[in-house]
Automatic annotation (TrEMBL):
<dbReference type="InterPro" id="IPR050377">
    <property type="entry name" value="Radical_SAM_PqqE_MftC-like"/>
</dbReference>
<dbReference type="GO" id="GO:0051536">
    <property type="term" value="F:iron-sulfur cluster binding"/>
</dbReference>
<feature type="domain" description="Radical SAM core">
    <location>
        <begin position="11"/>
        <end position="219"/>
    </location>
</feature>
<dbReference type="GO" id="GO:0003824">
    <property type="term" value="F:catalytic activity"/>
</dbReference>
<keyword id="KW-0408">Iron</keyword>
<keyword id="KW-0479">Metal-binding</keyword>
<dbReference type="GO" id="GO:0046872">
    <property type="term" value="F:metal ion binding"/>
</dbReference>
<dbReference type="InterPro" id="IPR007197">
    <property type="entry name" value="rSAM"/>
</dbReference>
<dbReference type="InterPro" id="IPR013785">
    <property type="entry name" value="Aldolase_TIM"/>
</dbReference>
<dbReference type="Pfam" id="PF04055">
    <property type="entry name" value="Radical_SAM"/>
</dbReference>
<keyword id="KW-0411">Iron-sulfur</keyword>
<protein>
    <submittedName>
        <fullName>MoaA/NifB/PqqE/SkfB family radical SAM enzyme</fullName>
    </submittedName>
</protein>
<dbReference type="InterPro" id="IPR058240">
    <property type="entry name" value="rSAM_sf"/>
</dbReference>
<dbReference type="InterPro" id="IPR006638">
    <property type="entry name" value="Elp3/MiaA/NifB-like_rSAM"/>
</dbReference>
<keyword id="KW-0949">S-adenosyl-L-methionine</keyword>
Length: 285
């Protein structure tokens, strides 16, 4: 059993199931709903040795054995294949979350070290998705998923729900199911970052409950969908296990999707020291 020390910055937490590590802010898209907003223009990135230090820290102190690399756009990160290999050598289940836009050379070098490729798809039609992301990106995302399927790579998708695209999600789920996707991870739009400057609207519980009914009535065997987030009562009681801990390139720490890109917790990850520290402590890079 893993027992935090008395100086541990996450008191009461004994395990982190999955580490989401943002390797860089840089991205080749400027999506309307992106919570990073102006941060997309920031140059910071996590150096490979710093990323490995984070993996070692969370494995040792919190029994973490799953990592998802994201950004920004992780396929723009130099040395991503080597970082995935280092994670696999340490026994991690590896994932990347990407926009999947025409980066096949990098993906080909990553795939032998990758357990799951997750591509962002924000709607079940090109019209819905491309409005949020960029023209042609819906077709490009499915081209990447087909590429992954043809090479035996396990794949899935993530989708941000808006008032405009939620009606297309059953079609998206069916297309992913027919392609052989493993999962579809849904998130609710948060009006921060770029979304605060657009006409995109958040979904209501009425919207999501209707989607829950629709998805439950579909034959989607083999496709995992986190339907529980569609219901108001889905929030679990607090406990000593964190399902997701996300770290930004500047060290901000978030313990749920609802916190990401905000000010973060009153702790930071100090990449130079490879440790969680209180926000009041000086953080070195």
């Amino acid at each position: 059993m893993i027992t935090p020390t008395k100086h541990e910055p996450l008191p009461g937490i004994r395990r982190v199931d999955k580490l989401y590590l943002e390797l860089l802010f840089r991205c080749n898209f400027r999506c309307l709903h992106c919570y990073h907003g102006a941060d997309l223009n920031r140059p910071e990135r996590v150096e490979p040795e710093q990323a490995v230090g984070a993996l070692d820290y969370f494995a040792e102190h919190y029994g973490c054995a799953q990592v998802c690399f994201l950004g920004g756009e992780p396929l723009l990160y130099p040395g991503l294949p080597d970082l995935l290999a280092a994670a696999k050598q340490r026994g991690f289940h590896t994932e990347i979350c990407t926009n999947g836009y025409r980066r096949y050379n990098v993906l080909d070098r990553c795939r032998s070290h990758l357990d799951l490729l997750r591509v962002s798809l924000d709607g079940g039609t090109a019209e819905a998705h491309d409005r949020i992301r960029r023209p042609g990106s819906f077709a490009a995302a499915f081209d990447t998923l087909t590429w992954a399927r043809d090479r035996g790579l396990v794949f899935g998708a993530t989708c941000t729900l808006t008032e405009d695209n939620i009606g297309t999600i059953p079609a998206l789920a069916m297309r992913l199911h027919e392609l052989g996707a493993r999962e579809l991870i849904l998130h609710r739009l948060r009006t921060m970052g770029n979304a605060a400057q657009t006409s995109l609207r958040e979904v209501t519980w009425e919207h999501t409950e209707r989607l829950h009914v629709a998805l439950t009535g579909m034959n989607l065997t083999g496709l995992h969908i986190n339907r529980e987030i569609l219901l108001p009562e889905r929030c679990p009681a607090s406990g000593d296990v964190v399902e997701k801990l996300e770290i930004a390139p500047d060290g901000r720490v978030y313990l749920s999707c609802a916190e990401v890109a905000g000010n973060g917790r009153d702790i930071r990850f100090d990449f130079a020291r490879a440790a969680l520290v209180n926000a009041t402590e000086s953080v070195t890079r």
